[in-house]
């Protein structure tokens, strides 16, 4: 199994704003005072378009889908939470915490991929769990080490333990379960998505180990990463707050590896961390300030990786 892919899906926003339904447990979201919704969306579109251009310029195969005004989907720019694509032709659909995010799941996006020559053989649909108030938000909640058959999950209101284990059984991953916290107004609160505090590359892992408060859990996670010969690059909670954990390794022209992140993440890394990362992949960063502030997500969340076979 490959850990990285050359193909990704991205959704271009049409009505991007801060989603009040997700703000209840995503503490990275902020209200941008004094900006009209149309201005926020225009800024997000500009950041999105520049980001896509940079990815395509290095040879990443980006399928851009336009969001629709028919549904109120302020977070549609983050497709990795509702779908994942797998090498055996499986597609997984995930249950979402915010009701207005459930409308992001669109069959026509799967049709578009099939039109491009990707093969979908089976759909694993976990969405009925929503009726029981159980959620697992795609590769936001679970980080897949595809090459080593492990899945990492920081439990939260958006990542249910039993459903995560069910996913691991269905897709043949060994589950690695822990809790990760951030300090909010002096209190330790669960981090809403695993992919803000951790990134898995082919030969490295970026992780905020300090966010795993339980020492046994922290040791267990780090030991798993080291056992798979990944260079572990530690980041701080302050760096997580600037989305330094929300990165994704992709492949460009000639299979060259790129580590994709936002400008704010790139800027908060130390020279030593950058040097460590650049041994593994070239850094590609783009300004996502509006998207990060209103959406509480960053570069990784915007890219749904496509591992499907091509016909």
What would you say this structure looks like, in words?
By secondary structure, this protein is α/β, with parallel strands linked by helices. The protein has a single domain (7-305), classed as L-arginine/glycine Amidinotransferase, Chain A (5-stranded Propeller). 27% of the residues lie in helices and 23% in strands. It contains nine helices and 17 strands. It has helices spanning 37-57, 107-115, 138-141, 161-171, 215-227, 237-240, 263-268, 271-278, 289-295; strands spanning 7-12, 61-66, 83-85, 90-93, 122-125, 142-145, 150-154, 174-178, 181-184, 187-190, 198-200, 204-207, 231-234, 248-251, 257-262, 282-286, 304-305. The strands form six sheets. A three-stranded mixed β-sheet has the order 2-1-17, covered by helices on one side. It has a three-stranded mixed β-sheet with strand order 3-4-5, with no helix packed on it. A hairpin with a 4-residue loop joins strand 6 and strand 7 (150-154). The relative contact order is 0.19. The model has no long low-confidence stretch (mean pLDDT 92).
